[in-house]
Amino acid sequence: SDGKNEEILLGSIGAGFCWIIAAALYIKKWLKRRRRAAAQSQFQQQTTHPTDNYGSIDRPEDGTGELLQDAEQSLSCKADSDDEDDDRIQLSPWAVVSFTFLGALDEISYFPSLVLGGLFTPLDLCLGTFFASCIVLVVVTLFLSRCKPLLDWLDDIPLYNIVGTFAIVLTAGVVWDVLADNDD
To answer: 162-165 contacts: CB < 8 A, separation 24 or more?
Structure first.
């Protein structure tokens, strides 16, 4: 039962970290949306309600005022698109490879039990993890990169939702282990 307690403890720690990361990502996104909305509101207020500019010159009637207004709109659209692109991260090929191999380390939580149970040798697990990482890397770089609509759809999923889903799954696993441990 000592191994079971360690498994429950490690699962609880992993789930707790996932919850903390998901909450931090959500708060970061929420604050960014508030700042963006405040900046947009301030910009709209400045353009729709000019301050009392006594002695200012009115816009000319020869059409240059329309050009000025079009320029202001294009600048505001550019500022909005800059904020949206701010969420996207450009990664080098080495960073993608590194993150793929680091992503394979999530299996480390159940590797010890597989080795201690005699199901696999450490070499088998290392080779299996390496080949699984290579397969994921090939699928991502060769197939998913060619399917732009799927990538756009996946890119629209907020990161806090993905991490939150992992947290829910890990929490459910810990609760399941605790309930199964109480039945024994």
So the answer is: 163/18, 163/21, 163/22, 163/25, 164/18, 164/19, 164/22, 164/26
